[in-house]
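PROTEIN DESIGN WORKSHEET
SECTION A - STRUCTURE
LENGTH: 286
TOKENS:
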């Protein structure tokens, strides 16, 4: 959907405009549900979430997909689960087993080899690839921090507060982008923009952060490795993009890595004491 939107709309408008629209929905949700006040520490952690998933990932993927195909981007984003797991250790205190890191490193090596051999001339990363890797790093941080915070606030309230906190940034950038490049697009681009606003930027995070909070950030984060395969399918069906055999091979090899990860890491995803400390009402929230 990002690829469709940025073909007709400015990427800065797509990245920040969808966050503004989602923030309006978030404000309505918090008002209806009567959300309690947040602590100062929670606001600081929400700023990290906002940097990663509200600003960083949408912006850098939008910039990348103006010149790169969604199929190529799907392979690069296979790095995201490993990045999320690293931040799960740094921010959430989780301790995956050594074999998990070996499998994650193998997946990362496959993606980087794909980029170097097929993504650019002269063996260097293209600007689009650099944007995608920046998006992955920031998104992994936002996922991990949001997963921890969702244990206290619930998944829905975590993304809603992060969207509202981002408004001082997202509103001015959206306005400037709209003035510089007035948004004129057809039905397909606006439909894609609407999907990014309502689903990708808002409703999808309700379930995603709830899952990270309940199942462990490192473990649940590996489910993202199914995303590239789905993206390849949709890019071929909806966009008519040519999916090369090398792209399919890399995606399949990375999925083998995640299957190995899931088989060796059962029970190690959440920090010690989590189940006892989070068995009450908060654990049952979205």
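SECTION B - SEQUENCE
RESIDUE ASSIGNMENT:
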């Amino acid at each position: 959907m990002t690829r469709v939107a940025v073909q007709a709309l400015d990427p800065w408008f797509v990245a920040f405009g969808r966050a503004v629209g989602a923030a309006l929905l978030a404000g309505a949700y918090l008002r209806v549900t009567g959300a309690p006040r947040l602590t100062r520490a929670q606001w600081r952690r929400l700023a990290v979430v906002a940097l990663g998933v509200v600003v960083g990932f949408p912006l850098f993927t939008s910039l990348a997909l103006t010149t790169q195909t969604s199929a190529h981007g799907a392979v690069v984003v296979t790095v995201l689960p490993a990045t999320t797991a690293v931040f799960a250790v740094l921010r959430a205190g989780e301790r995956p087993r050594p074999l998990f890191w070996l499998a994650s490193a193998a997946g990362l090596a496959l993606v980087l080899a794909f980029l170097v051999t097929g993504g650019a001339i002269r063996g260097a990363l293209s600007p689009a690839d650099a944007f995608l890797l920046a998006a992955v790093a920031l998104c992994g941080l936002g996922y991990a921090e949001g997963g921890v915070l969702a244990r206290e606030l619930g998944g829905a309230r975590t993304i809603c507060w992060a969207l509202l906190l981002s408004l001082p940034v997202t509103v001015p950038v959206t306005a400037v982008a709209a003035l510089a490049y007035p948004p004129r697009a057809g039905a397909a681009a606006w439909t894609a923009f609407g999907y990014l606003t309502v689903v990708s930027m808002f409703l999808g995070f309700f379930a995603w952060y709830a899952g990270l909070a309940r199942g462990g950030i490192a473990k649940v984060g590996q489910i993202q490795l199914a995303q590239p395969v789905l993206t390849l399918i949709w890019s071929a069906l909806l966009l008519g993009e040519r999916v090369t055999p090398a792209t399919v091979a890399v995606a399949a090899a990375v999925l083998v890595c995640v299957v190995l990860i899931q088989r060796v890491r059962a029970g190690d995803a959440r920090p010690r004491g989590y189940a006892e400390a989070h068995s009450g009402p908060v654990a049952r929230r979205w």
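SECTION C - NOTES
Confidence is low (pLDDT under 50) at residues 119-123, 265-286.
The chain has 14 helices and no strands.
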